[in-house]
Write a structure and sequence with these properties.
7 strands, Rossmann fold, four-stranded parallel β-sheet, alpha/beta
């Protein structure tokens, strides 16, 4: 296996945690008796760039399907953190009506609702239909797409570059890290 960032051969194993089904892969009454798909949880370290990564991974469209069930807005402590974060970043970076904030993997708009409440233009980029709809229901403009170089370039070309970009708990789910980070650079 090669490193997802620098393409060096990976030989240093950090830990083997066995295997597990993808998170949010809930079983239905019909699938309870069927074999369950699992993935190995072997974690390796690149000795060239020191990126820690899983040996195998599920494809993004498999993890973030139409049945995706995690909504960030159900966690009151996470919402309180998001509100404080937006207040701190707004003050620290003097964000206001002339700014543009983009959140990648914006889920149900849990963070951007506080950006919007401050009168700061914002955009969410979210691949799952259910959470993107929940964000739109809150009045948050949301592009339903996987983020990467293409999306970053398209938004920048439309004059929708970001003054600030948030990407909470997303990089660990990105199989092609360099394409994702390239999109971040193009959008900023």
């Amino acid at each position: 296996m090669k490193c997802r960032h620098c393409a060096a051969e990976l030989t240093l194993q950090l830990i083997d945690l066995g295997s597990a089904p993808p998170s949010n892969a809930y079983l239905t009454r019909e699938t309870l008796q069927a074999p369950e798909k699992t993935y190995p949880l072997r974690v390796v370290v690149c000795e060239r760039c020191w990126l820690v990564q899983t040996e195998d991974f599920a494809q993004a469209d498999e993890l973030f399907s139409s049945e995706y069930a995690y909504f960030s807005g159900f966690s009151t402590s996470w919402l309180a953190h998001a509100e404080r974060y937006v207040a701190d970043m707004s003050e620290r970076f003097a964000l206001g009506p002339g700014s543009h904030v983009v959140e990648v993997a914006s889920n149900d708009g849990y963070l951007l609702q506080y950006v919007r409440a401050r009168g700061i233009p914002c955009l969410g980029v979210e691949p799952t239909a259910s959470t993107a709809k929940a964000a739109r229901d809150k009045g948050i403009e949301t592009l339903e797409s996987f983020f990467g170089a293409r999306v970053g370039s398209e938004l920048a070309a439309q004059g929708r570059g970001a003054d600030r970009l948030a990407a909470n708990n997303v990089l660990a789910h990105v199989p092609v890290i360099n394409v994702f980070v390239s999109g971040v650079a193009r959008l900023l």
